[in-house]
Design a protein that fits this description.
The structure is a homodimer.
Chain A lengths: L8 H7 L17 H9 L5 E2 L12 H19 L9 H12 L11 E5 L1 H12 L5 E6 L3 H9 L3 E8 L2 E2 L1 H13 L4 E6 L13 H14 L2 E5 L15 H4 L4 E6 L10 E5 L2 H15 L4 H13 L2 H26 L4 E2 L7 E5 L6 H10 L2 E2 L1 E2 L12 E5 L5 H25 L21
Parallel strand pairs in A: 1-12, 3-4, 3-6, 6-7, 7-8
Antiparallel strand pairs in A: 2-9, 4-5, 8-9, 10-11, 11-14, 13-14
Helix pairs in contact in A: 3-11, 5-6, 5-10, 7-8, 12-14
Chain lengths: ~450, ~450
């Protein structure tokens, strides 16, 4: 695919004098789609339905001011100093309160490790467990940032089918059996059981129990990533997998969606022996997470009615979810999509003639961005699907974005009807940044 | 060494149901000495000469207040949001100013990547380059946190001899030649050329030029870790290695020692192709560094006379270095030690009869802590050396600490003289946490 004149990877290699020095794992490091997002989404004329940025303007800034002021007055020199690798005890105690809202009531602050956002915990758990060639089980589709991290440790992802009730237990059993026959080593099941990113679906209670049973029986650890659990819309969320099994689940939580991602405070709750190793991994990675930010979070939780604040977020995102659902009904009734009970994302199934990756440059030209489904599969699937996020734009912008998207899609479908193909390539396409994006 | 009744690693393994699931690299993960430090040093009655914590009380808190207030007023919703994986452009521009004080004048903000402290950059560079069995060259002794990170990627460290002028070029050449004969793959030279942690020595200008020549000739990348460069006491520091070679040096810098470690803002300046990969590695690790903290740093640098503030730190640490040097002269004239021109640490050479690791529990009992030399070698050396840090305790506490240390050392030497051995083991020793520690 590379032509002599291209300024592509091949040329880049030749220009990099250290090309032969990199570790084997670095060969798999592909240009991230996260950066492209920021480039696209930051242009104000584009309606971005691509990112996963929370609407932080819904957070009254005086709450942060107040938390900061108290922190500096009462813990200033501690907040400016190094801390322990596990995180400060005060925030770990409060994290127990947050997790109790997800049904986790048997945890100890000793088993919580705070990290630089929950992505960091995801990375360190991967570092602790994954040898090259190991297999991680994950929903089909699954969070793009997790797929990238697993790849960075040279692990393979085996996707497990989902439906509107989340991961399908029978598919999980079949996938495990198949991999075992092949002699593969399965290290853990990675799941976003609540308001899945990108699919928007939630694993039912019955299935949670089944999935836990299967993994216990097969001695497969579960890595439960739950950034959206408290952002439910229609009814309170289901109990976390971790609430039903303390021994076989590593639980990841985050303040990014219920407070602020700019603070980068997340956490892992892990069985004792794993937690010990996780602390060592944090120390090797960053010495200690930011005490400054942990204290801001601590004082915020102490001073504000944070549960009421989360209720406010729910109202904001519920309205946006509804705006997106209505706009899709109005402008793209011929397609199907999920209607999530919480979280940030709607998963849209296109018709077989449409290719979300190929269509993206045209969409950006029409001033709307989305994330092609291919970003959420490790195996090239997802061309006929896309993720739309409703978290950041206002309801009006969401409607505008969906209207623009409908123009693009309907234009494509007209072409298919007329010429039997949607492969309309223009010189512009090569100049538009390919596929955006997602951030968390 | 493990007895049946021990509550040791062997028992721990049996209790951990996931013991067989860990990655190969996790086997080398040893209980970190950093945590033990915090346990020891936090007891107020102990004079800790063990840690590497900067004296953050020397930073006027109103400067942080002012930076925070402006940040929230002018960039609030940006500071609370996700950022790009490379870090915000504003802080990267200012980092150029900081680096220009180290002689680096040809850098571009495009080639700077901000990280969660420079330890994070160290970790990610290691992840990019190190395969299991690769070799990293490092000073003998070398920063304990770097040794831990290299080990976490299953690399081996080959120590290169130093003297009062830092790394010895001839020793570097010999080590390289020896390793090449053995067929080993050398990935980079890790060096703390300014006010070495732990040795306190500085690589001379002549040697910097020689080391750069040797590494260029041998096609060995240099990883220059420079957290202390601006904290000089007697005369301005020497130009960074990076200032003389933009192609073969990755430079690591940090705000931990010139502002606050609690913010966890560090950076890497890397050749173009490496920088591109480093950004991808940041994204896989944490999505993006904290925008909140980057903005605090940005506004601090914009608003305050930060160079004058650094001059203030120099005065604080110079006084403490002098206090330690004088106390050693007074109480332990029979030993030899380095007198650093900057930084945080003095390296003490004990007599052959003394074992710093074995002596530590007795020192802690006498209410003084230090870091045994063994922490700074990957090969078990350092038993007859110790690191004393003068950064955190006041001059009075430093004098008290050295006096206590002299009591312990002289007590040991008396024993040696009387009985011909210092191996005085009591039941207490097993109960005292073994060897502390260092943080950065």
């Amino acid at each position: 695919m590379t032509h002599p004149g291209d300024v592509g990877p091949q040329t880049g290699r030749n220009l990099d004098p250290w090309y032969t020095s990199y570790a084997d794992r670095t060969a798999g490091l592909a240009a991230s789609e996260v950066r492209a997002l920021f480039a696209v989404a930051s242009r104000p004329e584009v309606v971005s339905l691509a990112g996963g940025m929370p609407f932080v303007k819904a957070l009254p800034e005086e709450l942060i001011h107040s938390a900061f002021t108290t922190m500096m007055r009462e813990h200033g020199s501690e907040a400016l100093q190094y801390g322990g690798g596990q995180g400060i005890p005060e925030v770990r105690e409060q994290i127990l309160q947050v997790m109790s809202l997800e049904g986790i009531n048997d945890a100890s602050a000793d088993d919580v490790v705070t990290t630089t956002g929950s992505q960091h915990a995801l990375d360190l758990v991967s570092k602790l467990f994954l040898n090259p060639g190991d297999v991680v089980l994950a929903e089909a589709p699954s969070y793009v940032g997790a797929l990238g991290t697993f790849k960075s440790y040279q692990a393979d992802v085996a996707h497990v089918a989902i439906d509107d009730d989340g991961l399908i237990p029978e598919a999980l059993e079949e996938t495990i059996a198949h991999l075992r026959v092949e002699g593969r080593t399965i290290k853990f099941l990675y799941t976003v059981a609540n308001y899945n990113n990108p699919a928007g679906v939630t694993m039912s209670l019955e299935r949670r129990i089944r999935v836990l049973e299967i993994c216990r029986r097969e001695h497969i650890l579960i890595l439960e990533d739950n950034p959206y659990g408290l952002l439910y819309f229609d009814k309170p969320g289901l109990p976390a997998l971790r609430s039903m099994d303390a021994e076989n689940v590593i639980y990841l939580g985050s303040f990014s969606k219920i407070l602020s991602p700019g603070l980068r405070v997340g956490w892992a709750l892990a069985p004792h022996a794993i937690r010990e190793k996780l602390i060592l991994a944090v120390e090797a990675s960053i010495l200690s997470p930011s005490t400054f930010n942990q204290w801001v979070v601590t004082e915020y939780l102490r001073q504000s009615d944070w549960q009421q604040q989360i209720e406010g977020y729910r109202a904001v995102y519920r309205e946006r979810r509804d705006a997106m659902d209505q706009a899709l009904n109005e402008h793209l009734p011929q397609l199907s999509w999920t209607k999530p009970d919480g979280g940030f994302f709607v998963w849209v199934r296109l018709t077989e003639q449409l290719d979300s990756k190929q269509m993206l440059p045209r969409a950006v030209k029409e001033l709307v961005a989305y994330t092609p489904g291919t970003a959420f599969f490790a195996d090239g699937r997802g061309r006929h699907e896309m993720r739309l996020s409703f978290c950041y734009p206002t309801p009006e912008r969401i409607k505008l974005g969906v209207r623009r998207l409908a123009n693009v899609i309907n234009g494509e479908l007209d072409l298919v009807e007329t010429f039997g193909t949607s492969t309309r390539r223009g010189p512009d396409e090569d100049r538009v940044n390919m596929p955006p994006p997602n951030i968390s």
